[in-house]
Amino acid sequence: MPACIKRGEEVNTISIIELLYPQYKIISIVGMAKNSGKTVTLNKIIEGAIDNSITLGLTSTGRDGESQDIVTKTEKPSIYAEEGTLVATATETLELGDARIEILDITDYNTPLGRIAIGKVKESGYLQIAGPQTNKGIREVSEIMLKLGAQLVLIDGAINRVSSASPSVSEGVVLATGAVLSRDMNKVIEETIHAINLFQLPEIKDNRAKAIIEELIENGKAAIIDNEYNITHLNIRTALNSGTTIAQNIKDDSKYVVLPGSLVKKTVEDIIDTTDKYKYIKLIVNDGTKIFIEPREWLIYKNKGLDVQVLESVNVLLVTINPYSPEGYYFDQEQFLLQIKEYLRETIVLDIMYGGGLM
């Protein structure tokens, strides 16, 4: 729970920006799906920053700010940038909005829309943003903007790029969810809870193993560590189709299985089908954004004894909800807010469309 909120304090007595700043300097805004309310959430945070004279830095994990959603062809909110805002975006997007931007630096990061430029907004307006394509690049340009005077950097997470929530990118994440995920409100809530549970998986506490695992993951090496901290390197490029190979290398004294990339359904199923020894080891991934398993399957695996831990948990700062879907259906906003709050008691939940929980 953010430091600005005491347990029992009403969220609606403060604004959204007070939940985020000055506690955090780099924040990712990530949507569970297109049209989940992510850009509305981003603009609410930007408005709060402007009202409080906070100098912003803006970047993205992909192209964003278009007037029409490229995937669904629906109208979407543009991203507004106040004079003085710092922006990290591809050079070809600089002329696509009406904000006038002074280029301060051209980085070495390339994208299909040109190299990433860092600029300062000289004349307020709307813009499109296409940031670096790697987590390392996003973090680096965020740090540059902070050095150039930004007090708070906002990272706009693109569809299928939930990795922008990774602790290697930002200090915390604002998660946007909504009716677009399903016509069934319970399914929307289930998927949202699942995402947060993955983000908040427990961190490995074994400091000796942690140091070894950090190096393995940094070098992209899959391996098994035993009780004596001996390392068995696995000759696999990725865990995606290597569950059987991983399982065959798990011994009686194995303690950790380290996976530097993603963890998916097939990998887990092959491990479970090949050996019962998985029940006595811990699967380690970098963070919860690397796990791509559906909620009910995840519950089945956990009930079978699967134990997954992470190097770093994702810090979920708050959740915003959008009760409307572009397909024309919607949830009762009060019921949606109350029900999701009931399940996410330790997480601040705001109705970004109707202002529930906002000042």
Q: What's the layout of helices and strands?
A:
Blueprint: E1 26-31, H1 38-51, E2 56-60, E3 63-64, E4 79-81, E5 86-90, E6 100-111, E7 114-123, E8 125-127, E9 129-130, H2 135-147, E10 152-156, E11 172-178, H3 185-199, H4 207-218, E12 223-226, E13 231-233, H5 243-248, E14 254-258, E15 263-264, H6 265-274, E16 282-285, E17 291-292, H7 295-303, E18 308-310, E19 316-322, H8 333-343, E20 349-351
Parallel strand pairs: 1-10, 1-11, 2-5, 2-10, 11-19, 14-16, 15-17, 16-18, 19-20
Antiparallel strand pairs: 3-9, 4-8, 5-7, 6-7, 12-13, 12-14
Notes on the protein architecture:
The protein is of the alpha/beta class. Helices cover 25% and strands 26% of the residues.
Features:
8 helices; nine-stranded mixed sheet; alpha/beta; 26% strand; 359 residues
Percentage of residues in helical conformation: 25-40%
> What distance separates the N and C termini?
18 Å
Query: What is the average per-residue confidence, as pLDDT, rounded to a whole number?
Result: 89
**Total number of helices:** 8
Strand content: 25-35%
